[in-house]
Please model this.
Amino acid sequence: MDAELELMQNLVNPNLIRLLEYRYDGKVEEKPLPDASDLPYMVLEYAEGGELYDYLVSGGPLTERFARYYFRQLIEAIGYLH
Model:
């Protein structure tokens, strides 16, 4: 898992949310667990617009123009990762 997290931390692309930091703290909901000192947490870049799913649920279907805009971003992100 550390290798994947380090890889994610090095990804820099305007169409991807950045992984800023990750650590292991052994807490879930502020309650320490007896043998869970290796539980990870991740700090991600703030996404001001929120998730696309929430946008679709609250606003309904996208117009063709906006669908093309978001699809292009998705394809560019996948191309970068490839």
